[in-house]
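Board notes, transcribed. Complex of a protein with NAP.
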Amino acid sequence: MTAAVYDRYGLPEVLRLAEVAVPEPGAGQVRVRVAATSVNLSDWEGLRGAPAYARLGGLRAPSIRTLGSDIAGVVDVVGAGVTRFRPGDEVYGDNLRLKGGFAEYAVAAESALAHKPPQLTFAQASTIPQAGAIAVQGTAAAGPGSRMLINGAGGGSGSFAIQVAKLRGAHVTAVDNAGKLDHMLRCGADEVIDYRSQDFTRCGPFDLILDLVAHRSVFAYRRALAAAGRYRCVGGTVRSLLRVLTVGWVIGRATGRDIGVLVVTEGPAQFTGLADRCVAGDVAIHIDQIYPLAEVSQALAHVGEGRALGKVVVQTG
Ligand SMILES: NC(=O)c1ccc[n+]([C@@H]2O[C@H](COP(=O)([O-])OP(=O)(O)OC[C@H]3O[C@@H](n4cnc5c(N)ncnc54)[C@H](OP(=O)(O)O)[C@@H]3O)[C@@H](O)[C@H]2O)c1
C-alpha cells in the first residue's frame, strides 16, 4: 500500500510516499481502509519533533513512520476479540497512539473508533475526533454569561471550541492572527483579538481561558483571570506548560484562581456528542482545504505554518 513515511524529524520535505506492507490488526484492533484523515497540530509537532513532548515516542528519530491520527474510513479486517465492528462498517476516531492515517490502510484499537454518522462525509467526520474532544473538554466549564477567552481559536480545535462555548451561553473572545479574525467571527465569537497587535492578557478579566498555544508567563495568565477564574492550556511550549503546572498552580491557589493544564481524555465518548451536534446543524464543520495523499507535505505545512482556517483534510483514494 502507499503511505506517507518519514525517518527523521524535520520540515515537510522529510516526508515521502513509499510502498509499505499493509498493517495487520492484532487482538482488539481493526484495520481501516482510510478514506480521509484530518491534520492536527499534533501531526505537525510529531513531524518536527518539537515541542519536546512530541519526541516521547522516539527521542532521536520517530518510532512511528506514518503520521495521521484522526482517521475516517471503512473497516476492512477485524482482529481477535473485536465485538463492535465488522468489515464494511464506516468508522472514525482519533488514532493518536498508533497513528498511520496518512496511508491507504491504518490499524486502530477498537476502543478508539465510533460508527460514522451516515449524514457526515468521511472528510467531515475526520475533522471531529481530536479537535472536537479538545473543544468539548476545554469549554466544559463555560455557562450562561461566563466570559471566556480562547487563545489560538482560528485553528481546528478553536473553531469547534468557539461554537461549543457559544452553545453553552458564554461570551466568547477569540484570539489568533489577523488573517483569522473574520473566520472566528463567522464561528460565532463575540469579540476577536489579533495576537500580533494586542496582548489578550491585558484585555480581561475573563472567567475562563482555554489556551491552545501557551507561550506566555503564568503572571500574564493570572492578570487575565477574574477572581475565581480558571485557565487551562492544552498545548504550547514545554517551558510554558511546565511553568503552568508548577508556578501557575501555586499562584492560582494563592490568588483564588485555578491555573492548570488540561490533559485531554481520548475516546469516542469524547467526540460523538459533538458529531451529533454537527449532524443536527448546531455546530458547523469548517474545512479549509482537502489535499490528496500525494500532497500530504503541503497539507501539514498549511497547518503548521498557521495558514489554515479551521481544519485541513488529506483524502486517500
Ligand atoms: N493536552 C492534550 O492532551 C492534547 C491532546 C492533543 C492535542 N493537544 C494540543 O492541542 C493543541 C490543539 O491545536 P489545534 O489542533 O487546534 O491547532 P491548530 O489548528 O494549528 O490551531 C492553533 C492556532 O493557534 C494559532 N497561534 C499560533 N501561535 C499563537 C499565539 N502566540 N497566540 C495565539 N494564537 C496562536 C495558530 O495560528 P498561527 O500559527 O497562524 O498564528 C492556529 O490558528 C495543540 O497544541 C496540540 O498539541 C493537546
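Residues 40-42, 45, 130-131, 134, 151-152, 154-158, 175-177, 180, 195, 212-213, 215, 234-235, 262-264, 303, 306, 308 surround NAP (CB under 6 Å). The chain has a mean pLDDT of 95.
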